[in-house]
Design goal:
This protein is of the alpha/beta class and about 200 residues long. The protein is built from 8 helices and 5 strands. The protein has a 5-stranded parallel beta sheet, with helices on both faces. Helix 3 links the parallel strand 2 and strand 3.
Length: about 200
């Protein structure tokens, strides 16, 4: 979140940076993870003027839609099914209920879980395809996971991902052999961080 939020705050004021325009969408495979991300995002943006809204299943759609429309969040965090209802539409609707013309970034957290589970895969792909149709050249897509190594080694599964990434995408990995990573059991060294969080 931090590098994306920094970019949102430092971009010169234009029509796409006015308050109340959706600029970042974060998809997580579960309600609990989406709630955790929302809590952290709200702490990080405190005092910046940016707002964060949660959109998850298990709550009534009309109430969730009303909350999103009332708050007009800059950042929308949610689960694939509910976000697809809001962004793509459902049941014969031709389009979603929210404007996507100002979305700059899309984050798929635990992207391997989003693609491996059919219940998550279909709405996630619907969201990706909708955003690519409307924001293809301007959209920054970030796929994050701590467990996707196997998926990235499988050429068939990797090919599915690649159709939603720019041609010049890059992969950043860290493992225990990386000198910047501190193993949990290692208490003799100074604190280090993974290269993937350096900004």
């Amino acid at each position: 979140l931090v590098p994306i939020l920094q970019r949102m705050l430092l971009v010169p004021t234009t029509t796409t940076t006015r308050k109340g325009l959706l600029r970042l969408i974060v998809i997580a495979p579960g309600r609990e993870l989406a709630s955790q991300i929302t809590t952290v995002a709200r702490q990080v943006v405190q005092g910046t003027g940016l707002s964060v809204q949660l959109a998850i299943g298990g709550t009534t759609f009309s109430r969730n839609l009303e909350q999103v429309r009332k708050m007009k969040p800059d950042i929308l965090v949610g689960t694939p099914g509910r976000l697809a209802e809001l962004l793509v539409g459902s049941g014969g609707e031709k389009r979603g209920r929210l404007q996507l013309g100002t979305v700059q970034s899309l984050v798929l957290d635990e992207f391997d879980a989003l693609f491996d589970s059919k219940v998550h895969r279909d709405p996630t792909i619907a969201i990706l395809e909708t955003l690519q149709r409307r924001r293809k050249d301007e959209l920054q897509s970030i796929f994050c996971s701590a467990t996707a190594t196997d998926m990235l080694k499988d050429e068939k599964r990797k090919a599915i991902l690649e159709q939603y990434l720019r041609a010049d995408y890059s992969i950043t990995l860290a493992d225990r052999a990386d000198r910047w990573v501190t193993a949990a059991a290692d208490t003799t060294t100074t604190t280090r961080v993974s290269r993937t969080v350096l900004h």
